[in-house]
Amino acid sequence: MRFAQDRAQLDTRWKELQREAHPDKFAAQGAAAQRVAMQWSVRINEAYQRLKDPLRRAGYLCELLGSPINAERNTDMPADFLIQQIEWREDLDEAETADDLDKIALRASLSQRKQLSKIEQMLDVDHDYAAAAQQVRSLMFIERFASEIDARIDQLEQ
Amino acid sequence: MPASTSWNNKHSLRNKQKYSAMALLQLSEPGQTPDPHQRRIAIGIDLGTTHSLVASVRNGVSECLPDAQGRVLLPSVVRYLEGGRTQIGFDALAAQVRDPCNTISSVKRLMGRGIADIGNRSRMPYQFIDKPGMVTLQTVAGEKSPVEVSAEILASLRQRAEDTFDDDIYGAVITVPAYFDEAQRQATKDAAQLAGLNVLRLINEPTAAAIAYGLDNASEGVFAVYDLGGGTFDISILRLSQGVFEVVSTGGDSALGGDDYDRALVDWVLAKAGIAADTLTASDKASLLKAARECKEALSAAPSARFSVQLSKPTINLEMKADDFEATSAYLTQRTLVAVRKALRDAALAKDEVAGVVMVGGSTRMPQVHKAVAGFFGREPLVNLNPDEVVALGAAISANQLAGNNTGADLLLLDVIPLSLGIETMGGLVERIVPRNQTIPTAMAQDFTTYQDGQTALALHVVQGERDLVADCRSLARFELRGIPPMVAGAARIRVTFTVDADGLLSVNAKEQVSGVEARIDVKPSYGLSDEEIARMLRESFSTAQQDMKSRALAEAQVDADRMILATRSALAVDSDLLSGLELAQIETLMAGVAAARENGDAATIAAATQALAKGTESFAAQRMNRGIRHALSGKNIESV
């Protein structure tokens, strides 16, 4: 199983499967068929959610390959990463305009992309799952940071 | 043979080659196609703030149904008269200025809303009564809930459809703004039930528009549906590919629409004329709003228009320029664009990834709105379908499919929940369990624990909304998990699972993992009406409808019985190898029971026999379904794509 996945192919496959299993396809066939269809449909959606988001997919793979993420218990982060995070947060606190926020968001998304390609290398080429798990943990920080930027943009636009 | 039936056969054949097992799950096997007259009549209803429409698929084409005078729009206005009579639609609209307190318009804004939720109350001529959950209105015919008012509109459309087809209506798809919360959706469902309609599904207005639009144009790619109606604004981002309509994100404002543009215009005029709003009578307010609507509509076609109105004291007569109207309402247009940006962010898409922008709702006819949307997306929006009709047309297509009549198109709608769902945790904070824009159906779980030593019960409060504080979200339900064995604080592991079905209905289950004790609740928001209240309203205002319902119930029970027998027979014809001899005999006995009840039973007896057959074939259905889907999945592990 590889970390690298073609998103378009994944989307197509998801829709093909939902075409077979979605409860609406069994609208005329009674409650029992609907219930079973719903269970399948839920499982297909769950699998899709897990696979389409690269971070969740990476976490899932690490776990399958024996290096669980355990984000709550494992909070050990490299010092330079922590310092960078503190700086980013200071920038976010000081940001006043939508432009400022856009700049911070862009920097975060570039960093996300860089980390993901590192994870791909670790999982698919080096098979270094422990290192990948560590990388996933730090990416989770960046993800949370990105959602805080979004919240700030929402606030600014209210 | 009707087009839809012949297509059906083709569909089965295609499936046969590809996934032979799946074709067996299709109801219509060659040679067993249901009679054309067994086709269920299903309608789509756009229950709008200012007007409503009903549409249905006839001969494979979705069309809006006109009234006896040939008009498809029904003004969403209900007038209550003394002696319990009502006027609905154009007659009521004509009386609005004369009888403002008893003539209810824009009732959609009041659905599922408490008195504190309703902005601009002083501008409306009604006498509001503060009731827990939802406001009611005092009229000459007594106190009326917004649900009852909406039910009058729906019943009128149902009547129109029944007259058109000279037959009973099997069921309806009713559209709601994507941004409606559970309470508003439930209120809409209650209204439909009160109007004697079987609700097949509530679907979101922009999604319905996309269905009508997408099927018409065979479009592919990402579309934004900008829907500015009379009282609500919705934005949805959808991805269309080969008949699959995937809602990627939705957003909007359930209290922003054309009515607000009317009010902005009235404010401008009053300021210009130097009249204080608090000196106006109820009739003045209605006159002003009417004049504003007319002026606004005139400004859609001309750079300036007259605003003239006779009030109880002064008369206003002045020239309104389109530029002034644009300027005075710019803050409203801006608010819609804020929601558009948010929806794009939620979808993680940039403006230039949008292949087309569909305009829906009469308010998109305002030139300033058109201009702002075109400016934002950098492309001309699509307006080739009538913005008033497109929602009802899409709803009818969906209704036809959900009624089990295969439409000409292989349509699949993958919708999302519009607002996050969660539970209250310590300190009045919300723990989100299902984030907004999650594709449904879905089931998501999270583990919680006890916070006191020896704690044996846990109170669960289910809420909906995007804010972090429970106080800022809408409360949906409360229930308790009891019988947790005494443990030290933090030792219990309570898994709370939220399940949202394809209809968007939520059920919540809580289970303590060590002892296995569990509790569950189907969430009906506290603002919705109870079944008893519905029954009371039915008794009071729709006594004739009850008689109708009785004969309809019998007809429906018979049709259901026929369908169940047909479905079981066709399933047995193909998959009986899944059953033991004993199981097969049991199913045959149950089928004989249904056939007997069908001949001389009443609705309840037939329904009970059909139910028994459904229950008796449940595990058979599950096995067939699993066989079918395994086959579809075979060769490919979903986890590895």
Description:
The complex is a heterodimer of chains A (158) and B (641). With 158 residues, chain A is mainly α. Chain A has 6 helices and no strands. In chain A, α1 (7-21) runs antiparallel to α2 and α3 packs parallel to α5. The longest helix of chain A has 29 residues, at 98-126. Helix content of chain B is 39%, strand content 24%. In chain B, the strands form 7 sheets. In chain B, strands 1, 2, 3, 4, 11 and 12 form a 6-stranded mixed β-sheet that branches. Chain B has a 5-stranded mixed β-sheet with strand order 18-13-14-15-19, with helices on both faces. Residues 1-37 and 637-641 of chain B have low confidence and may be disordered. Chains A and B meet through α1, α2 and α6 of A and α10, β19, α14 and α17 of B.
CATH superfamily of the largest domain in chain A, by name, is: HscB, C-terminal domain
What integer is the average pLDDT of chain B?
83
Give Rg of chain A in angstroms: 20 Å
Instruction: Please name the CATH architecture of the largest domain in chain A.
Output: Up-down Bundle
Topology-level CATH name of the largest domain in chain A: Monooxygenase
> What is the 3D shape of chain A?
globular
Total beta-strand segments of chain A? 0
Structural class of chain B: alpha+beta
Number of helices of chain B: 17
Question: What would you call the shape of chain B?
Answer: globular
Uncertain regions spanning at least 5 consecutive residues of chain A: none
**N-to-C order of helices and strands of chain A:** HHHHHH
> What's the CATH first level of the largest domain in chain A?
Mainly Alpha
- What fraction, in percent, of the residue positions of chain A are helical? over 70%
Largest interface (CB < 8 Å): A-B, 43 and 50 residues
Indicate the mean pLDDT of chain A.
88
Query: From the alpha-carbon coordinates, what is the Rg of chain B to the nearest angstrom?
Result: 27 Å
Ends apart, CA distance between termini of chain A: 44 Å
Helical fraction of chain B equals: 25-40%
Percentage of β-strand residues of chain A = under 5%
